[in-house]
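Key result, reporting period 2: structure in, sequence out.
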């Protein structure tokens, strides 16, 4: 990658939220979201999550990509999952120019805003690795 990357979320954009795929949660994410919604961690998990032996993720509803995506944006934005907060500085995007460009096809924030030093992007990617060790062994 270059010395840095340009990225700035664009007002009103929900392009990342409409992509196919899963939103994985850390235990801390689940607790924080549950509290925000006024639910117990158990009630939140039962209603909104799917747990495997290795990971916890949000269920994908039939009619949308995410239970929390509304016309105006994310209804849990203040407590959004680590995966969502770190996007687009995921390890697989921060290390590959080709993947970064591929993501730029749907993300209008890539290439916008101030130059973000590559070390800052890599630090975010490392946080993602640490938050989701099953995904990034």
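The corresponding designed sequence is given below.
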């Amino acid at each position: 990658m270059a010395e840095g990357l340009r990225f700035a979320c664009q007002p009103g954009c929900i392009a990342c939220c409409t992509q196919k795929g899963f939103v994985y949660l850390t235990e801390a994410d689940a607790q924080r979201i549950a509290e925000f919604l006024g639910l117990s961690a158990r009630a939140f998990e039962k209603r909104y999550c799917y747990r495997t032996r290795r990971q916890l993720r949000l269920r994908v509803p039939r009619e949308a990509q995410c239970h929390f995506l509304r016309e105006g944006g994310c209804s849990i934005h203040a407590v959004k999952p680590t995966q969502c907060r770190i996007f687009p500085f995921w390890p697989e995007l921060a290390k590959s120019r080709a993947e970064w460009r591929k993501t730029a096809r749907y993300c209008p924030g890539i290439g916008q805003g101030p130059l973000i030093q590559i070390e800052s992007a890599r630090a975010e990617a490392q946080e993602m690795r640490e938050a989701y060790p099953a995904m990034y062994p």
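The chain has one domain: 4-131. The longest strand covers residues 110-117. This case is discussed further under Risks and Mitigation.
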